[in-house]
């Protein structure tokens, strides 16, 4: 069957365009097993996508085919924001809303759209692409590798919860979510500029964090609360967005802090809430000090650990030069990339944490696939571990040297889902 592939213009207000974008949003929700869209959801979706200049792709049944209409059988969207690569905020192609109708799987629809989009990113000089996947087996074939991980915890805050020696030099204040938004956004922007692995927030985060709209329900989100932390100079240096859940539980939706003191201050506040026995958060920072600051470290239980941000390197020299390096050295890295974007051999020389990377015809000393390069790019997946898994090839001394150069002490971390 010949499908009708098209890019929707979300600024077009013609009857046909409005019907097609309503059908497109409906197809996305159908793909993620969500209810059919209401008018307000579509209006906000369109507003956000216009603000972020999102490119909206889809595949439709051809006119006259049984089932043809404004609803596509496959959806795909992408936008450009930034990734904190460690040495700079790198342009990032963010991929989202990928669905295929259950009646049209294995027809090459995703392949057509993702390859067209990656070609477009390369043409526009975007050096890296990213997505947050709901299935771990799909995107490796297009060179994406899991680069950050989602660490979920339950914290037991019943009687006996205590810190070893922490006294908050600042304080926490509760604000209404809309009132807190400028402070929340200010903290996040500073956090994003500092934190390797962080991805910028798309436009819908304002509606999410002000409670203006509940994308998991309908209408305003009346459940969320916002706590902001002030340092001893009364400057906001952290926030927690949370809601009371069932069985004496508080669920943290988002939390970020600019100092360990602010992080512990927020945890202390959440633990002190009346009639709360458990605080849960599913994107805890790998270096969160909570467990080691508590008198009883067993009060923190890991509930999940799974991949979160998937990266795909499109411009190898640009991407590798944008990240920090741990040791001086030289390696000739060969990348096997079936799509060709990152394929080739690259001479990487690192000195004082900075790399110079150029294409070369020299013999490779270390060999990886594009998928593996995406996984190791931020340093959260150690080279020796990938070597033991059979995913890094080369002589032992060469791989050890590459590991010393590439593996980073401080973990990368991302809060942003999309």
From TrEMBL:
Gene3D superfamilies for the chain: 3.40.630.30, SCP2 sterol-binding domain (3.30.1050.10)
Span of domain Enhanced intracellular survival protein: 316-411
Residue intervals passing through the bilayer: none
Cited Pfam families: Acetyltransf_17 (PF17668), Acetyltransf_9 (PF13527), SCP2_2 (PF13530)
Residue span, Eis-like acetyltransferase domain: 222-311
PANTHER family: N-ACETYLTRANSFERASE EIS (PTHR37817)
Name of protein: GNAT family N-acetyltransferase
